[in-house]
Design a protein that fits this description.
The chain is mostly helical. Helices cover about 55% and strands about 5% of the residues. The protein has a two-stranded antiparallel ribbon with strand order 1-2. This is G1/S-specific cyclin-E2.
Length: about 190
């Protein structure tokens, strides 16, 4: 270990001890909380109380939880991932208002997220649960079990069709039909 690395580690240790190890990293879910709160905010004194739909939050959070399992998600900042997920469930106008981000900032992520959105929207919606010791206004913060690995496999399957295109015969209600002539490779008509 170089002397500079040792000094850097020592400085970090001093900082974390001064903070009593009470660090609060800004996660993708933190960005989602912020964006939903800014969009829903109507009364300034109640800024610390969630004023957004808990059902919307858990549905978008499920999408983000699935997305961050994919290694490709590391290509995007957390705020971009949260804004893109919000865009899939609301509109670009809501995203602009809540995040200050423009379409150009999030369009690549919105496009990347499409197979994840298809899988999440096709799954049974996550239900809010009530727990004895959890206040009703905090129940959206309780993460419940979802089989994300199976969903991630489904994303890979959906993505394989999205990237490769559909050149093989298509099944319409049990009847096999050839691809449209516009889908056939050039020179094979």
């Amino acid at each position: 270990m170089s002397p500079w690395s040792f000094i850097h580690l020592k400085e970090e240790n001093v900082k974390t001890q001064a903070l009593k190890w009470e660090l609060c990293p800004v996660t993708v879910i933190s960005w989602l909380h912020l964006f939903l709160q800014v969009d829903a905010l109507k009364d300034a004194p109640k800024v610390l109380l969630p004023q957004y739909s808990q059902e919307s939050f858990i549905h978008i959070a499920q999408l983000l939880d699935l997305c961050i399992l994919a290694i490709d998600s590391l290509e995007f900042q957390y705020r971009i991932l949260a804004a893109a997920a919000l865009c899939h469930f609301t509109s670009i106008e809501v995203v602009k208002k809540a995040s200050g981000l423009e379409w150009d900032n999030i369009s690549e992520c919105v496009d990347w997220m499409v197979p994840f959105v298809r899988v999440v929207k096709s799954a049974s919606p996550v239900k809010l649960k009530t727990f004895k010791k959890i206040p009703v206004e905090d129940r959206h913060n309780i993460q419940t079990h979802t089989n994300y690995l199976a969903m991630l496999d489904e994303v890979s399957y959906v993505n394989s069709f999205r990237k490769g295109g559909q050149l093989s015969p298509v099944c319409n209600g049990g009847i096999m039909t050839p691809p449209k002539s516009t889908e056939k490779p050039p020179g094979k008509h």
